[in-house]
Design brief:
By secondary structure, the protein is mainly alpha-helical. Helix content is 49%, strand content 5%.
């Protein structure tokens, strides 16, 4: 694979990760959850073959409970 081909692949991976981050953010917000530090992990996006990890970041206790409630299949455990 040429350098240009690798670069395009890296850029496509980063764009895909950005889209996944945005989809996750939209879904969380629809469930009433806001992760203020949701972003791409910059270090994982470097190099010729980036891993493109999504950083979920920190949240407060209320947000952690809201997130737990949102991902439970039965909807039990809503924030107290």
């Amino acid at each position: 694979m040429t350098t240009a081909g690798r670069w395009m692949t890296a850029m496509e991976k980063i764009r895909d990760a950005e889209q996944a981050r945005d989809e996750l953010n939209d879904a969380l917000r629809a469930a009433g959850v806001c992760l203020p530090s949701l972003s791409l992990d910059a270090a994982s996006c470097t190099g010729p073959v980036p891993l493109t990890l999504i950083e979920l970041g920190r949240c407060n206790v209320a947000t952690a409970r809201a997130l737990a409630a949102a991902v439970r299949p039965d909807g039990l455990g809503a924030a107290r």
